[in-house]
Design goal:
- The N and C termini lie far apart (about 50 Å).
- The chain has 2 domains: about 1-80, Orthogonal Bundle (Arc Repressor Mutant, subunit A); about 80-145, Ferric-uptake regulator, C-terminal dimerisarion domain (Dna Ligase, domain 1).
- The protein is about 30% helix and about 15% strand.
- The protein contains 5 helices and 5 strands.
- The protein has about 150 residues and is of the alpha+beta class.
- The structure holds zinc ion (2 copies).
- The site of one zinc ion has 8 residues, from α5.
């Protein structure tokens, strides 16, 4: 990744700081969190530079951009196929690898007319910590169950 033409991009000091910060944070950080971490490496880096580069890097497939329901956009340095589990109480997002995994081809067969390019599953629930603390789930209304008696 140090070549002069790395994914068609120049590997600048700023990009390296952003990428290394993201890779170190395994929490699927928001742009603001990447910014705070990158600033420890490059104190003068700006929030705009961090956001611009996160967009650029995800546009080139070097990192993943996650649209997580009910929260700010987050970023993921892990490119291998994987899914996520999101805690409804605290928002924590962890990696999961569910088996068997549904193949893109299997999905394609069920969606005639679409060109399926990939998929990503989000499991929702309570993380072990929130479960122990019995924190109130359903931070976002989208996930609120229609039937309260079922809870
Ligand atoms: Zn939690
Ligand atoms: Zn992930």
């Amino acid at each position: 990744m140090n070549g002069p033409n790395w994914h068609g991009l120049r590997m600048t000091r700023q990009r390296r700081a952003i990428l290394e910060s993201l890779r170190r944070l395994e929490s699927h950080p928001t742009g603001d969190e990447v910014y705070r971490a990158a600033r420890r490496r490059l104190p003068h880096i700006s929030l705009g530079t961090v956001y611009r580069n996160l967009e650029l890097l995800s546009g080139r497939g070097i990192i993943r951009k996650l649209d997580v329901a009910g929260s700010q956009r987050r970023f993921d340095a892990k490119l291998e196929t994987h899914d996520h589990i999101r805690c409804l109480a605290c928002g924590r997002l962890d990696d999961v690898t569910l088996k068997p995994r549904i193949s893109d081809a299997g999905i394609s067969r069920q969606l005639p007319g679409y060109q399926v390019l990939g998929h990503h599953l989000e499991v929702v629930g309570l993380c072990p910590e929130c479960r122990t603390k019995r924190r109130t789930p359903y931070k976002d209304t989208l996930a609120r169950p229609g039937n309260a008696a079922a809870a």
